[in-house]
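A reminder before we start the practical. When you read a complex entry, don't treat the lines as separate problems. The point of joint prediction is that each chain is placed relative to the others, so the output describes one connected object in space. Small molecules and nucleic acid strands, if listed, are placed in the same frame. In the example below there are two entries. Take a minute to note the order of the lines before looking further.
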Amino acid sequence: SQKIEQNSEALNIQEGKTATLTCNYTNYSPAYLQWYRQDPGRGPVFLLLIRENEKEKRKERLKVTFDTTLKQSLFHITASQPADSATYLCVAAEGGSYIPTFGRGTSLIVHP
Amino acid sequence: DSGVTQTPKHLITATGQRVTLRCSPRSGDLSVYWYQQSLDQGLQFLIQYYNGEERAKGNILERFSAQQFPDLHSELNLSSLELGDSALYFCASSPQGIVLSGANVLTFGAGSRLTVL
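Here is the predicted structure of the whole assembly.
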């Protein structure tokens, strides 16, 4: 079956360091991947989208990569801040599919 | 404020009861998605509507139903409620129903927290 997997273990890092979150997919050929941020008790908020023909996308302190050979996307937050603490969700959809499928998310905790 | 409005924010009810959750999509968006998020669970896709018509169904129980009205707001009806139905229910909207070459970015509401006692 199609799966999107994110590390269920929380990622703890010190303020100022780069956080790297991983999203792996299996039995899937996503046309694009999206990353969302979710704070406790709130709805996810869209951050970045990367298409299968793009290797890397950047937005301010955020960077996402998409490796179709490894079937993996990496999400980086540079110069992390305590305000970046949240759960980050990877989302995929195959070409022609209009149903974004969410991973379970990885919790990021940035310590001051 | 994302522009997607969900009501009620919180709802406490008893097993066997029926509730209706309401969603108004962002202005201009034609597509509405419903997701369920239980404790420690990811977002589970329930159902999608586009411009009033059902477009896709996910893991939606037969006890649940939804519809999208001409003014594009949507309602999710949950009946014969069980303890396990306690969850956050999110509505999201997007401009398109199906996009072959692009991508559907979803705008989520704040969610409706349902507690079944």
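Discuss with your neighbour: The mean pLDDT of chain A is 90. What might explain this?
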